[in-house]
Specification:
By secondary structure, the chain is of the alpha/beta class. It contains 13 helices and 8 strands. It comes from Nocardiopsis kunsanensis.
């Protein structure tokens, strides 16, 4: 693949897809890409993290600041700030001399250090990793067992979810709802992601008459060419995703897919090819068990009429 075909490739490493003015740069995705590439460079050089740390100390002339754990943190994304000088030192150790490739790494360091809009909502969003990944995803597949996916929620429904989730504790409900609505801006991109969701019918049964606008919105958005909504009827019995809801996100090359799982107290991100394969297969099974898009739209309308 040449530069004009969509990616810059140096020494077998794809640094970044070709950029356009309309592209959204996700610091979260750049961070993951940079860490993955540094790991691949070290592995390609046949060096251990311990050996790299020792060589970095030697070349920098500093007895402190470099350690095996630091190299590991850089490769797993477990860092807050990353110095371009540190990255260039690692590239020296790995024998990366091509000016264009090194410039690509410098761009990744700069972009990974930026802050997305979600950083201002840290008090209600935590790390904001999910939003950072959504912002550049090319496709998103989601299974939801008890709620409407966040990207398809109306303001009233999002507020009801936030209030219920706070369990009566003081919470910044307004900011949670505001952030949830801002997430939907990804559908206004020049090339919005393909979004396909399977929603368990149980989620619809929990929608009360005062939240009927959520059902109306689902019917409306289901007509968009980049959105697919399927309902998994409760009469279908047991199925492949009974245990939890999940999201599978794909990205333009060179970034690999990511699976997102959410539990009550934490978020999990799975990236190994086997983990992604298992959840992709799980989504395919659930999708085949669900109603068609047209049948699902009719079911939503029927539920709306019953309120």
């Amino acid at each position: 693949m040449s530069d004009s075909e969509g990616a810059v490739i140096r020494s077998g490493h794809q640094l970044r897809p070709a950029k356009k003015e309309s592209d959204i740069v996700s610091p979260t995705l750049r961070r993951r890409r940079l860490s993955r590439l540094l790991y691949e460079q070290r592995e390609g050089a046949g060096l251990t993290a311990k050996a790299v740390a020792a060589e970095a100390k030697k070349r920098s002339g500093k007895t402190r600041g470099w350690s095996e754990s630091k190299v590991n943190r850089l490769e797993t994304g477990d860092w807050k700030r990353l110095s371009a000088d540190d990255v260039h030192l690692l590239l020296d150790i790995y024998g990366v001399t091509d000016p264009a490739e090194r410039a690509g790494y410098a761009d990744l360091v700069r972009e990974a250090g930026q802050k997305g809009w979600w950083a201002t909502y840290e008090n209600v969003l935590g790390t904001g990793q999910l939003i950072g990944l959504e912002s550049e995803a090319s496709s998103i597949r989601s299974y939801q067992s008890m709620t409407v996916p966040g990207l398809l929620q109306t303001e009233s429904y999002a507020r009801a979810i936030a209030v219920a989730g706070s369990m009566g504790e003081p919470d910044d409900i307004d900011r949670r709802v505001e952030a949830r609505m801002l997430r939907k801006a990804i559908f206004s991109r020049a090339k919005p992601p393909a979004f396909w969701t399977v929603i368990d019918e149980s989620a619809l049964l929990h929608i009360t008459p005062d939240l009927r606008d959520q059902l109306e919105y689902l019917v409306d958005v289901s007509h968009r060419p980049n959105v697919g909504i399927q309902i998994l009827p409760v009469t279908g019995g047991l199925h492949a995703a009974m245990t939890a809801h999940f999201v599978v996100m794909d990205f333009p090359m060179p970034d690999p897919p990511v699976v997102y799982l959410e539990v009550a107290t934490e978020e999990l991100y799975l990236e190994s090819s086997e983990q992604v394969r298992q959840y992709t297969r799980r989504f395919d099974y659930v999708q085949r068990s669900a109603l068609s898009v047209d049948e699902s739209r009719e079911l939503i309308r029927n539920r709306l009429s019953s309120l």
